[in-house]
Amino acid sequence: MAHGHLIPIIDMARLFARRGVKATIVSTPLNAALCSKTIERDRQLGLDISIQIIKFPSAEAGLPEGCENISAITSPDMLPNFFKAIGMLQQPLEQLLEECHPSCLVADMMFPWATEAANKLGIPRLFFNGTSFFAMCVFDSLKRHEPHKRVDSDSEPFTVPGLPDQIKLTRLQLPTYLKETTENEFTKLMDQISQSELRSYGVIMNSFNELEPAYSEHYRKEMGRKAWQIGPLSLCNGDMEDKAGRGNVSSIDEHECLRWLANKKDNSVLYICFGSVFNLPGTQLLEIALALEASGQNFIWVVRKGELTKHADKEEWLPEGFEKRMEGKGLIVWGWAPQVLILDHKAVGGFMTHCGWNSTLEGVTAGVPMVTWPLGAEQFGNEKLITDVLKIGIGVGTQEWSRYEKKIIVRKEDIEKAIAQLMASDETEEIRNRARELKEMARRATEEGGSSFADLTALVEELRALETSKRERKVH
Ligand code: UDP
């Protein structure tokens, strides 16, 4: 029910189908529409893949009609109803499973009851959370050791105990539910999610071994989870049509976008996008516009439609004459950009990102270094992986969660400084070289003989063996 989860799950289903597995994607009408064309194309190519639709109970849960995706949530007050609606999907899903009789159910973390649903049918449930091993390890340590409870202030850094590297965070950078002292609906849901991860057959990770080896080992050995890492999943989008139509209808014609990039020197364009969920206030967007203009860099900047509707129209915050002055230098995409297509272009040399895991991995896969600007969720953890462990990014200096904040979090001067450091400083070449190496590793991992390719083979073989032994048991 969110692009950041739906997109990798679609990629994953396509990857399974390419391995000769019959893949059925279960989704709701509006979410299914986001991938129906891609799936239809795969079917025409002969893959055994399809979509099954179940209704999303928006009205029954007290949500506006058509509110089926977290990107349509405009205020935190709507979240309890959204989660209620998600919970109501259990019964129709169980009914569908009864009809389809799959060999295995891969379900997103937001469906903790899916483990029970799979158990009823005697099939394994694989858990997908859509984030990094790194973030999973950080959160596990925080829950286990609660280092944030032993500091005197919200801004005092503490070390996250027991990790392969020394990782420092502050209370301001943690999700609210981790700091909650009393139980509420959300903390209960997060507990159910943790429980269902533990009780599931195993975990599928959108990562690759060479990216965060110490953390995938920690997750398996220290945390005792069974996991398969089969990413980067975005790499299953080989051609332009795949990349351009991934996850949504693009607000810019892909050919126009590529023509614009074709006129730019290698590594000269900064791509700015804060994912599919987060809204920045007009005041913050203005600081970004001012910084971009002052930086003198070429840029493609994605401004979400939600950001516009929420803060009236662009005239209220965009500096007068900005688009005219930036003609040829900067391109604003109002709405949805073909992100992977853009990142993969050789003219793109930097990515200002909110550190959502998909974006992070897509940046890594494209070999593009990053300006990190985490906003919420587990993004402050992912930022540490980018800047402190992999050393392929420069932090813009965000200090606290700001998903629904109206205030300016980062000033023009700091944004400009981070851009200059990433795109044109003594460090640039070093960072770029490291990013390039990771890009090569990512590609090798998904090719035959690579680590992710092998993990997917092992998973499919294990599931086939399970199915065979089940059938044999039935015969006897
Ligand atoms: N995305 C895109 N175009 C946009 C915005 C987002 O293609 O204009 C895709 C992006 O490539 C990524 C996903 O949406 O695959 C966002 O997931 P991520 O985990 O980065 O962040 P979230 O949206 O969940 O915060």
Work out the radius of gyration.
Answer: 22 Å
| Molecules bound to protein | uridine-5'-diphosphate
Report strand %.
5-15%
Major sheet details: 6 strands, parallel
SS field, number of helical segments: 21
> Which percent range fits the helix content?
40-55%
Query: Which CATH C-level class of the largest domain is it?
Result: Alpha Beta
Number of strand segments = 14
> Unreliable segments (pLDDT under 50, ≥5 consecutive)?
none
Tally of structural domains:
2
From the spread of the alpha carbons, the general shape counts as: globular
Quickly give the structural class. Answer: alpha/beta
Mean pLDDT: 94
CATH superfamily of the largest domain: Glycogen Phosphorylase B
Strand arrangement across the biggest beta sheet? 11-10-9-12-13-14
The appropriate CATH architecture of the largest domain is: 3-Layer(aba) Sandwich
CATH topology of the largest domain: Rossmann fold
The termini sit apart by 42 Å
